[in-house]
């Protein structure tokens, strides 16, 4: 089933989504994407449902064909200061601010958001599997964050971030047991890290 636009009328709609919210390490990334009204692609879907190959293929198409797109991040230190929910929203705000066209409407994945300037918005639970602009944003946020974590992997290879991207996998938890946490880990997740080491 093809995804759709949220608005029937030709509003300049920016979809927003984040990646990395449930990770123990690394920044949280967010993307904002304004697609053309006539945009269609049968592969487009929630990034979590796509193969790595299809995500990267769609990233190229989205970045080429979108009217405007932007990706932004919030560091682990900032996540520790403001909590992951506020950091995720801040990352979305930063992405929206970088768009070279002002959207008429914001479509946000999830159920929590803080108003951005004077732009009306709607939140949609699991919106990345329903609406094209959010799905496109989910793909850009995911692929850009994965590429960033892959770079960090070369600095600290024992955490396995080339595969787990900072999520609490068994390999990641065992590496934390052996090496402790790094400067890229979210310190406010320390108790969660310890709890998740119980396996």
Task: Give me a quick take on this structure.
This protein is α/β, with parallel strands linked by helices and 199 residues long. It has helices spanning 52-65, 76-82, 84-98, 132-155, 161-164, 170-179, 190-195; strands at 13-19, 28-34, 68-74, 105-109, 121-124. Strands 3-2-1-4-5 form a five-stranded mixed beta sheet, with helices on both faces.
Walk me through the structure.
The protein has a single domain, classed as Ribonuclease H-like superfamily/Ribonuclease H (Nucleotidyltransferase, domain 5, 2-Layer Sandwich), CATH 3.30.420.10. Helices cover about 40% and strands about 15% of the residues. It contains 7 helices and 5 strands, in the order E-E-H-E-H-H-E-E-H-H-H-H. The chain has a 5-stranded mixed β-sheet with strand order 3-2-1-4-5, sandwiched between helices. The longest helix is centred in the last third of the chain and has 24 residues.
Task: Estimate the strand proportion.
Answer: 15-25%
Q: Enumerate the strands of the largest sheet in spatial order, edge to edge or round the barrel.
A: 3-2-1-4-5
Query: Structurally, how many domains make up the residues?
Result: 1
Overall number of strands: 5
The sequence of SSEs as H and E is: EEHEHHEEHHHH
- CATH level-two architecture: 2-Layer Sandwich
* Helix/strand/pairing category: alpha/beta
> What's the overall average pLDDT, rounded?
91
End-to-end C-alpha gap:
39 Å
CATH superfamily name?
Ribonuclease H-like superfamily/Ribonuclease H
What's the Cα radius of gyration? 17 Å
